[in-house]
Amino acid sequence: MTGTLSRRPSRRFWGWGAMNDGLSETELASVDRLLQGLGDVGPALAEPQLGDYDLHPSRGSVPTALAHVVSNSPYDRLTHCYGKSFADVARMWMRHVPNAPDWVAFPQDEGQIAELFEWAGRHNIAVIPFGGGTSVVGGVEAAVGDGYAATLSLDLEHFDCVLELDRSSRAARIGAGMLGPGLETALRPHGLTLRHFPQSFQFSTVGGWIATRAGGHYATQGTHIDDFVQSIRMLTPAGPVETRRLPASGAGPAPDRLLIGSEGTLGIITEAWLRLQARPTFRAGVSVRFATMKQAVSCVKALSQSGLQPSNCRLLDAREVAFAGVGDRRSPTLVLGFESADHGLGAWIERALELAADHGGQWSREELDASMRPRQSATAGRGASGDWRSAFIRMPYWRDETTRRGAILDTFESAVIWAGFDEFYEGVRLDVADAIERITGRRSELSCRFTHVYPDGVAPYFTFLAQGDSQGDIASALSRWREIKQACNAAVVRYGGTSTHHHAVGRDHRSSYEVETPSLFRQALAGAKSVLDPHGILNPGVLFDPAGRTVGIIGALGST
Predict the structure, then answer these.
(1) pLDDT per position as a tens digit, 490-542
(2) What's the CATH fold of domain 282-376?
(3) Segment (H or E) for 339
(4) Which CATH architecture has domain 162-278?
(5) 313-343 pLDDT per residue, tens
(6) pTM of the model
(7) Extents of the domains making up the chain
(8) Angstrom distances, CA of residue 125 to CA of 36, 56, 113, 153, 155
(9) Residue 13: partners with Cβ closer than 8 Å, 6 or more residues away
């Protein structure tokens, strides 16, 4: 019961990636250049070791029948302590873990989950569902207040296989603990793919995607995991809930819609039937430069309403191309792409480029032709598209390095209708930049990219770099981050956006989620929870408080 039970390859418990991952010397030099603009920053702290942390003794005792699937080893507790947000990584560098889970469970079947629920309910133990631990919104932190006797992180890593494949309906029954790469490896021999690639793909799970309504890499059509869910099986303290496999239904409020995005508050997703697609064999892509952001936005709006459905329609503003080192480093740039398993794409991308030309866009015919050659079909692409993809994948590692030196590198995202975009874009950038200047004494210009586009609106994603503390004091940086984060939360809803487009609510976005959603709706959710989770033990404090309990917003943004 005290030994490490996790069987996955060792992960960095203090940051992003596997234990042997990290930035190259060239990348570290780039981090240094990036931080030069902030003025004085602190020295890089030494990487944490397991013995650096003062973990509180585990409270309570585990039933003998469950001892072989429950651990309180330092490694298991630390790897399940936080997610991977700026605040999570900062606190790990600070060696500050007051809310480490008392226990970590690795159930091997649904019967053991039911036993864990029974034990937790009887002894008032909060249960925190855990997939890949990639939450950036405080969704897996055991920050539940003083109203619980202990905390248990429940890890689904044993639920990690494709259980059944339906070729006729092109769907698969998949265990909730399946990691992204393992899933695609299992589907590849069948010529199929889920086609869902969030930035956390390497380390996140099917169950986590569903529980958080995760967004994938593709810009149109299947933008969220919602679009791929055919049915769900969830275990709750009151019993199992399993929805019917159907292509569509008009039978009342859809039960899947209640379970998708429930963020571990209603039950544990153990498996799901997901809709699959044939693996693409045709691709075409090119980067398009614009003289102004206004021209670029008008082009993306036209593309979103054209019915062409590009797989990639990622617009980077001038600050973003400079920050990510993309293209000419100064022109707003659209990373445009199409893919298909059925047909060539020349007509599609040529029509899209006609629209781009109408809005002043310019591109390289050589880059376009290269993207359509067979030898390029399985690569990430060249030019600005390839540059941006590389920066996108490596950014979490950069964030870890800047955090250990006391700087604040962070992101936030939203979605807004086209009619409100101009005011949203200018207002959010100005309000957050003003807040950063007030809090840190230095102005930070926000960069922005579009992650997903819709006929009626767009999902802007902002990045900022701010000085945390000139002496590298991470505690001071964390305090500044809290104020900046609250300003970001307020700004996105003030200008008509959503509290989150694809990062989930967790604890960190709860304040803006409560502005966005009707109070009666949240009460109805709490009512559903009281039926499915009568003791209120599942992920308390995420989305809403359990009925009859006051948890509030604690953790990274509140008291610890």
Answers:
(1) 999 999 999 999 999 999 999 999 999 999 999 999 999 999 999 999 999 99
(2) Alpha-Beta Plaits (3.30.70)
(3) strand 333-340
(4) 2-Layer Sandwich (3.30)
(5) 999 999 999 887 888 889 999 999 999 999 9
(6) 0.95
(7) 162-278, 282-376
(8) 47, 16, 14, 10, 15
(9) 48, 50, 75, 78, 79, 81, 92
